[in-house]
Write a structure and sequence with these properties.
single chain; alpha+beta; 4-stranded antiparallel sheet; 34% strand; elongated
Length: 161
């Protein structure tokens, strides 16, 4: 039938209403179904909207890359005042080597970033992580984590930025 906005759909189901068959059809047609071929695809408008938002994001972030790494995982805990802690998972597999990746923090700083989980003893002779995070152009922290480098243990705090 017709694709309706959420506010219109809500009026079909107010207390005491008896939605018609056409109104139920409008409800179903107004949303993407998980089994539809294009259900997971965004419209061009949605893609452009997200791209524009990403281009202007000003939150802090962690940037990282791996070199000569096998499968591994490092979990970071990002804490800030008056906000729920955020957990960032950094996964590496053999195909990620050398690729720089970035994940943004929720909210505004200052942030305190700490290692929540990391099995550094599993790093081989030529394996290392390079982690860098910043909260503004002038506030950043970086750390090289690797085999035979100073120990980086669970709970290690990178510092506040």
């Amino acid at each position: 039938m017709a694709i309706r906005d959420k506010n219109t759909l809500k009026t079909f189901f107010e207390t005491g209403d008896k939605p018609s068959q056409d109104q139920f059809i409008d409800l179903i047609d107004s949303f993407k179904h998980q089994n539809e071929t294009n259900a997971l695809l965004l419209t061009d408008r949605e893609i452009v909207s997200i791209a524009n938002r990403i281009a202007t994001i000003n939150n802090g972030f962690v940037e990282y890359y791996f070199d000569n790494m096998s499968n591994s995982l490092i979990k970071l805990n990002v804490a800030q005042e008056n906000e729920e802690n955020q957990e960032i998972e950094i996964r590496c597999d053999i195909h990620d080597n050398g690729d720089v990746k970035r994940q943004y923090f929720v909210g505004n700083g200052p942030y305190n970033v700490a290692i929540k989980e990391f099995e550094s003893e599993k790093l081989q002779a030529n394996e290392y992580y390079y982690l860098y995070y910043e909260t503004s152009l002038y506030d950043s922290v970086d750390r090289l984590i690797g085999h035979q480098l100073p120990t980086t243990f669970n709970g290690f705090e990178f510092g506040k930025a």
